[in-house]
Write a structure and sequence with these properties.
Layout lengths: L3 H13 L1 H15 L3 H15 L9 H18 L6 H24 L2 H4 L1 H4 L2 H17 L2 H5 L20 H18 L14 H18 L2 H21 L3 H25 L2 H14 L5 H8 L31 H30 L5 H16 L11 H12 L9
Helix pairs in contact: 1-3, 2-3, 3-5, 4-16, 5-18, 8-10, 8-11, 10-11, 10-12, 10-17, 11-13, 12-17, 16-17, 17-18
Length: about 400
């Protein structure tokens, strides 16, 4: 039998290779029609690694996390609805497991937990190459996995996954991670392993192409935020102006390459679809913002009508889900109290990132991206957006302490 220490070692290894598990599960889903490997392995991994009998001294973020959990439990206790026990269980093994990642980031060293990003680079590149090939040639089984092949949404690149969000959001995380490495946003005392030059170049080209072909505003905007923070760090923290100039030249070259790829492999309808989405976001008429504002409408309640009651999986029980915005779902499920506690936690995390911006630039970019993506997507509830990454980052920020001797 495995000792607890050995078991933790192997489970940690699986956790650090999360994207391999997701990719393999997607292949199994194509062949046999289920994602059981991912569905069963993720909550086991997250809850096991989150458990720590002797916890460190509580801080403000830990207290806010407890209050968030309390608001969730209260929403269950005061409401009665069909399939309540089943939906509570589904919440625990999905959103509850994702939230448990906070304690993984809280209790483990940053170089250990951030291997989940480094180890995702290789399978990510494989999925990117496959995705571009499938996008261009589109075999019959690939078309069959698209819900509505006649819609413009079918133009989004999916690779081997059922949703274009999987690779698009992963591209954001990996590009932001690489930018933090290359611009030395990560402080030296983090001891994060470097990535070879060839892998970095391939990653920038392929993942940037993936963002274009997935045609999603939020991940593209998120990468631009990460880039801005990296450039700010280079210019004002490290004061390396020559590095800044080289970076700008490299970005111009990358944009030229990306534009040539778009012209060669993206048809006119796809290009117009992508441009239209950006035009909508910058439309001065306000129609876009009015439509988004309507997504925040929910029942006026203090505690909501039950956490998990409007998640994506409730459609299996003939119930109404909320997929368009995370803010609306939180307001509907956990009410004003629960939503306020979530936002207070996120806000405090961002404030700490800003306070220690020379050390927590990567984490700051992820948190800003989270708040933006919550407007038009569900990054905290739907697994195709790698929900546990956000809670992992929050745990990392919560545990951050300056070393006795500052090393920049």
């Amino acid at each position: 039998m495995f000792s607890p220490k050995k078991m933790k070692h192997y489970i940690l290894l699986l956790f650090q290779n999360y994207f391999w598990i997701l990719a393999i599960s997607s292949v199994i889903s194509i062949l046999f029609g289920n994602m059981w490997l991912f569905t069963f392995s993720m909550p086991i991994m997250l809850f096991f690694l989150a458990w720590k009998p002797k916890r460190s001294k509580k801080n403000l973020f830990d207290v806010l996390m407890v209050l968030v959990f309390v608001s969730i439990i209260i929403s269950w206790c005061i409401n009665s609805y069909s399939f309540r026990s089943v939906l509570i269980f589904r919440f625990v093994i999905t959103q509850g497991a994702f939230m448990a990642a906070y304690y993984i980031g809280r209790n483990m060293e940053v170089d250990v937990i951030y291997k989940v990003f480094r180890n995702a680079l290789f399978p990510g590149l494989i999925c990117a190459v496959l995705g571009l090939a499938l996008y261009i040639y589109q075999p019959a089984w690939y078309i069959a996995n698209i819900d509505n092949p006649a819609s413009l949404e079918s133009f989004r690149l999916r690779s081997i996954f059922s949703s274009p969000y999987v690779l698009s959001y992963m591209s954001f995380f990996l590009l932001s991670y690489l930018l933090a490495l290359d611009f030395k946003v990560f402080p030296a005392f983090n001891k994060i392993e470097p990535v070879t030059f060839r892998i970095r170049v391939l990653s920038y080209v392929l993942f940037s192409s993936i963002l274009l072909f997935c045609m999603m505003r939020a991940p593209i905007g998120g990468v631009l935020i990460s880039l801005f923070i990296a450039l700010f760090h280079t210019a004002f923290v490290r004061k390396k102006i020559h590095v800044l100039i080289y970076a700008i030249v490299a970005m111009i070259a990358l944009c030229v390459v990306a534009w040539n790829i778009m012209q060669r492999y993206m048809d006119i309808d796809s290009m117009l679809f992508l441009l239209e989405k950006f035009e909508m976001a910058t439309d001065s008429s306000g129609d876009f913002y009015e439509a988004r504002a309507n997504l925040f409408v929910a029942d006026d309640t203090l505690w909501g009508d039950g956490a998990g009651r409007h998640a994506f999986y409730v459609e299996q029980y003939k119930m109404e889900s909320i997929r368009d915005t995370c803010y609306q779902r939180l307001l509907q499920e956990v009410g004003y109290v629960g939503l306020t506690l979530h936002l207070l936690l996120f806000g405090c995390i961002i404030i700490k990132c800003v306070r220690y911006h020379r050390y927590l630039g990567f984490e700051l970019s992820v948190m800003i991206f989270l708040l933006l993506s919550m407007i038009g997507a569900e990054p905290l509830a739907t697994p195709d957006k790698h929900c546990f990454f956000y809670w992992l980052i929050m745990g990392r920020v919560s545990s951050f302490r300056l070393p006795k001797k500052k090393i920049i």
